[in-house]
TrEMBL record:
Pfam families for the chain: AHSA1
Residues in Activator of Hsp90 ATPase homologue 1/2-like C-terminal domain copies: 36-130
UniProt lineage: Bacteria, Bacillati, Actinomycetota, Actinomycetes, Micromonosporales
Biological source species: Dactylosporangium matsuzakiense
Protein name: Activator of HSP90 ATPase
InterPro entries per record: ASHA1/2-like_C, START-like_dom_sf
Length: 210
């Protein structure tokens, strides 16, 4: 059985800047971790509809470069780049909101796979979110990706996992709280927030997943 809470330290997290494909300044969240699985297996899990449904969400659409996808109950967008088994870039939009971009990069690492996931948003989206909600909104986005990558770990490990119900379990909520705390430290270091501001942001983001 995987101790997911202890998996928090297996992920590197950082905030930075990014150049968006359409031009303009962007802000980004980056997650980096290694999986004990071959690159081809991780790529298949991240791009095959049948496998995506088992750890993230059912996906539909014209699943090819230039096509559009829709995750059930989640984001949708266009597929910008798909180079197996190393690079996938898509736009990522919730409803009618302005599109952000998600890039997935895979590379061999020893006997496993190094996964890097970068979520870049136009600077005005992030800045407005911070004005409205403080850094807690950014922490919540990072926490959401942590939960998704935990689901990928469960899937690759052969564990029984239902993404539609797992996030309501005590295990997932404990994981989300630890994730938000980890992102809180990243935000505090990057933006110079005080301890009280960081604690409030973590509480806000954790409540989003409870």
């Amino acid at each position: 059985m995987i101790d997911l809470v202890n998996q928090i330290n297996a992920t590197h997290r950082e905030l930075g800047t990014a150049g968006l494909s359409g031009g303009g300044a962007g802000r980004s969240l980056l997650l980096r971790r290694t999986y004990d699985a071959a690159v081809e297996d991780v790529w298949s899990a991240c791009t095959t509809p049948e496998r995506l449904a088992r750890w993230l969400a059912p996906v539909s659409g014209d699943l090819r470069p230039g096509g559009h996808y829709q995750l059930e109950g989640n984001a949708g967008g266009s597929i910008q780049i798909c180079v197996a088994p190393s690079l996938l870039r898509v736009t990522w939009s919730m409803g009618e909101g302005m599109a952000t971009e998600v890039e997935l990069r895979l590379a061999p690492s020893g006997d496993g796979t190094l996964l890097q996931l970068e979520h870049a948003s136009p600077a005005e989206i992030v800045d407005e979110m911070v004005r409205q909600y403080g850094p807690g909104g950014t922490i919540g986005i990072g926490g959401g990706w942590d939960l998704a990558l935990a689901g990928l770990l469960l899937h690759l490990s052969g564990a029984e996992y239902d993404p539609a119900t797992w996030q309501d379990t005590a295990e997932a909520k404990a994981f989300a709280a630890r994730s938000c705390a980890a992102w809180g430290a990243v935000v505090q270091a990057a933006w110079g927030t005080g301890d009280d501001d960081a604690a409030a942001a973590v509480a806000f983001a954790t409540a989003h997943f409870s």
